[in-house]
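My current task is to audit a protein record that another person submitted. I need someone to confirm that the token line plausibly describes how this chain folds. Take the sequence as given and treat only the tokens as open to question. This is what I was given:
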Amino acid sequence: MGAALAVAQSPSPAPDPAYAPLTRAYDALRARDYDMAVADFLKGIELAPGRASIRKDLGYTYLKIGENELARDQFGEAMRLGPDDVQVAMEYAFLCYETKEQAQARRIFDRIRKTGNAVAEQAFHNIDDPLAAGIARWQEAIAKGADDFNAHYELATLAEQRDELELASEHYEKAWRLLPDRRSVLVDLGRAWKALNRLEDANAALLAASRGGEPRAAEMARELLPDRYPYVSEFQKALELDPNNVELRRELAYLLLRMNKQPEAEQEFGMLTEQAPDDLLSATQLGFLRFGRGDVAGAMPLFERVLAGSDDDLANRVRAVLRMPQVLKQRSEDTKPVSIDAKVMAERSMKAGYMKDALKYLQIAHEAEPGDFNVMLQMGWAYNMLHQDGDAVRWFDLARHSTDPKISAEALKAWKNLRSSNEQVRITVWMFPIFSTRWHDLFSYGQFKAEWRPRSRIHPYFTTRFIGDTRVTIGAVSPQYLSQSSFIVGVGVATVPWHGIMGWAEAGSAVSYITGHMVPDYRGGLNVARNFGTSLTAESTGLFAASNTDALFISQFGNDFLLYQQTRFGYSFGPKSLRAQVYWNVNATLDSQREGWANFIELGPGIRFHSPLMPPPMYVMVDTMEGAYLIHGSYPVPHYFDVRAGVWYAFTR
């Protein structure tokens, strides 16, 4: 780019909030410590987000370390904050060109050249002239008969880069019609229509691309679709564009079925059975719909197709509706179908206490019908009664995935009881994304922990923590305890909890996913947790209180000792379909080095939700907090208000 790094004069003294980090940033630049400069520029941006000059200097710093895309993004923000700065706009345009964003580069050069800038004029023509020539060449080729996929697609691509969006969308659509298996072209078409503000057409193209076909195209389409489930009308418009999309039509059919629109669903299933004769599931569903409204003559050809097919589970569902005897899968070509009597004999043997005989019959039944979850459940109990808990855990694990809630609940309870008492290695994963209105940021916290559980009071473990946010902060004053933008990998030891008290210690390294910089990380502490009253998932309503205290040491915070105290008390209520807790928060944080950000108190109301539709360890929370820092003058904002919304999820294997 040839532009020298702009090193500004020393920032103004306080009350400028960005004074300290910017001073360190410019000192780091002079020492060529670019990682430190980047970190402090980001802190400065956090404290003074509307100052374009900081982003400009950060952009030049990124260029020094070869991070052109990050530099481009910073110059783009600087241009947004200072649209009259021609130098910044030119830098951004050149970086867009270098990072394959030619359309954006062309737009900016076009705007600047109209002010009489000769460099922008030349840069614009360097991009625009080849595009114009290419468009003319492909248009001439098509006019002479080159009506194939490549001709239309190349013309559309060049037209989109030149912002001739009507021409681009026209030829993207023609290219896709010629080669409908190329689903990525639907993504291109949707993007062009979206740029033309033809949102309804764009969503239809993207929805069609997101169902069926190329996985990569489906992923790109989902990124451009609205962040919600599509409406029925959008499914219908997508099918007008792509009527042969079987997966799209099947999803619409089941959506209509869930909405109790049986006639419309039956129509879609009817089209499915014509388009995809081998889709036995759709044939079964259509047969059930016709049979349910009394059209036996219309249902029987579909049932006969399913009975003659290779899906034994669907065939048995049809037999159940027609009140025909159930038939299990054949064990070999030389044997006759096994009767359902194998399960009957197994049940009788278990009632009589002949567990080994019962197990033999259950094994025969499972070989004949591998998808019968009730057989899997009974095999788990049989192995359990024979004191073969290792095998029992495996069968309970399989049975807990049943779609029958009674079978899955019974198997899950047995699986948890056996697994927790026998496993030596436990893997725990928890995730906690949370949005803060105070910081206008989405923070994400998570941990993977693999723990070895010998028969002792101390368990060693391996851990990987994630601490980050969407605004890509690096240990900033605003605040460093919220986001370190790092993966922290380490090993540690933890005590077995005793009356809610647990001690732990870790040693490892923190690796920044922004700069790649690695620093040692040592941490440890003591946790005390207490819970009283009615829990969120309890069936009854009532008062509750919960307290969590953490005393910990973290080397990355200047070998600081911190004390966190979180207390909430309130009331649990609601039906089983949506349990909730309303409560009052009392939170406090203190530290040994009297850092401004680490000494504060928070108060405020909150609410948590849990539904049986969520996994058991998941809940949604919203807290409204008033906070105050306890060390006056050490932090720019002595009081604050914050609304936080997050989702907690954890699981153990």
Summary: Confidence is low (pLDDT under 50) at residues 1-14, 330-339, 474-481. The longest helix spans residues 118-143. Residues 3 and 633 are 40 Å apart (CA to CA). The longest strand covers residues 518-533.
